[in-house]
Amino acid sequence: KGTLNTVIVAPSNSTKVVQFAAEELQNFLQESFGVQVPVVATVQTGKVSIVLGDPSGKLVATLPRDGFIIRSAGDVITIAGKDDPQADSKTALKGNIWGMLHERGTVFGVYDFLERFIGARFYFSGKMGTVIPPHNDLQIPAMDILERPDYTVRYCSYYLGDLPDP
Question: Is 71:33 a contact under the CB 8 Å cutoff?
Answer without folding.
Answer: no
